[in-house]
Write the structure tokens for this entry.
Amino acid sequence: MKFETVIIGAGAAGMMCAAQSGPGTLVIDHARAPGEKIRISGGGRCNFTNLHAGPENFLSANPHFCKSALARYTQWDFIDLVNRHRISWHEKTFGQLFCDGKATQIVDMLRAEMTRTGATLWLQTRLADLRHGPDGFTLDLDREGARQTVTCRNLVLASGGKSIPKMGATGLAYDIARRFGLTVTETRPALVPFTFPRGRFAPLAGVSLPVRLSNPRASFDEALLFTHRGLSGPAVLQLSSFWREGEEIHVNLIPGLDLFETLRAARATAGRRALKTELARHLPARLVDFLAPDLKIAGRLADQSDARLRALAGALSDWRLRPSGTEGWRTAEVTLGGVDTNGLSSRTMEAKTVPGLFVIGEAVDVTGWLGGYNFQWAWSSGHAAGAAI
Ligand code: FDA
């Protein structure tokens, strides 16, 4: 069968691209359903974009690459689309937009757009072989137990990254890109919890608090969550994209509070109060108990010297921890790195050396922060390729 365009991957980017490229477009996916990551995203409500999305929220070897696509299909364009489909939404925090209802509304919206523009979707379809000649691409596909050959002028790699292999993530886009001479930068799990030697934070599992989490390259003011395996929560997921094995992270447990002055003032007015009790007014009590032996948190406020209070405030505003690793691909929300942007046009996502070959979405070396930015990249890059086709 002959198609103008074949898109490998019916995820966020692939469906958005198909909704633009329309008739003559075939989207294939080995999964049973399209947009599975959309379905489970944002706790089932899909954080589909961010009001403040801009190039500064993305990591890439070339930080300028994402600018063109993001500027030509913005968060406002996607919000318009969502509004046209009468999907109600709300802003949570930090500009993050979520569906009021279910994330599947976004999947249904993209399917409806694909249908409207006449794109075809084949699910449970695997690529068995791929050839390239002067007339374009030939794909041998395994579909419903039968071999089917299709040809196309444009081939779009939209099969995503390596995160959550259990959900069907594969490195197919990277393998095909390499076959065509494109470079793939180092890939790493990102937006992923940190692990610590077994049991280290077990007594704190479930405790969550706002922190400032930083390393020399980045700093995030968001929530931290202690887990049986280590540390999670938005602040941790954010910093994981900037972390390298063996490095320390710095946790300010009392951001925005001058704890020294606060404790001094409390000592003046309530000297008989236990130091632990006073600290538990500013931090979760379980955390204070956990830290007490190491930081020698004991006695009444009146017993603490200025030097002692200063040292305590210093320790709590710069708790240094060294993760043993991350939870890896099993739980990472995204892949850092991917198809090198040097080989792609930032306007169209087409490979500079292989006319008709496009790479979009997470497969490209463009990775967003936590907060709806990764979907915005999928929409913007998918739109750029779809409009060019
Ligand atoms: P995506 O992974 O969506 O799609 C790739 C498609 O290709 C899949 O349908 C897959 O089945 C298919 N495929 C893979 N290999 C194939 C093969 N060999 N043959 C055929 N098909 C193949 N982002 C955000 O902005 N807001 C959020 O709320 C969240 N939440 C979130 C939660 C969780 C748990 C995860 C894992 C991730 C998120 N993300 C997110 C990230 C977001 O899901 C991600 O950035 C986009 O889905 C990337 O879109 P793509 O279309 O590039 O890949």
The longest strand covers residues 146-157.
